[in-house]
Amino acid sequence: QVQLMQSGGGSVPAGGSLTLTCVASGHSWGSYSWGWLRQVAGKRLEGVAVIDDDGSTDYVDSVKGRFTISRINANNTLYLQMHNLTPEDTAMYYCAADVRGGSVASWVPDYNYRGQGTQVTVSS
Fold first, then answer.
1. What is the DSSP string of 54-94?
2. What is the pLDDT of residues 55-108, one digit of tens each?
3. Of 11, 30, 46, 50, which has the fewest beta carbons less than 10 angstroms from its beta carbon?
4. What is d(CA 86, CA 84) in angstroms, rounded to the nearest whole number?
């Protein structure tokens, strides 16, 4: 059974930092690309950051220089380090996996698997 189990998230003031973690199980993940998506209430899902199996990354412009995506293949774990958070970063965040990879803009709406989501709230 495929599972993408997320942890992290929470509430922080503007300028704060958070780290999201996603642990995958139930599948052979070696050739998969990984990503983080987010959805603001009432708005469409948005790709935030992706990392291919070769370690190459891509970010949506609004988080470049503030967010860092990383992965540890040996234990199927994905991270998203978020710094200098702003209220505009408030959203439900999802980890995702896709065998095709590609730019961050190409991940929505097509991806293979998604985690359960974790809320990030940034207060002004």
1. TS-EEE-GGGTTTEEEEEEGGGTEEEEEE-S--GGG-EEEE
2. 999 999 999 999 999 999 899 999 999 999 999 999 999 999 999 888 998 898
3. 30
4. 7
The amino acid that residue 90 corresponds to is T
- Name the amino acid, one letter, at 66: R
Q: Distances from the Cα of 26 to the Cαs of 3, 39, 42, 60, 81, in angstroms?
A: 6, 26, 32, 29, 25
- Does 35 score more than 90 pLDDT? yes
Place of tokens 């998604």: 114
Return d(Cα 23, Cα 20) in angstroms, integer: 10
Residue 21, pLDDT above cutoff 90: yes
Give me the phi and psi of 71, to 5 degrees please: -145, 150
Q: Answer yes or no: are the C-beta atoms of 82 and 90 closer than 8 Å.
A: no
The alpha carbon of residue 5 and the mean position of all alpha carbons in its chain are separated, in whole angstroms, by 12
Distance of CA 96 to the CA centre of its chain: 7
Tell whether the model's pLDDT for residue 30 goes beyond 90. no
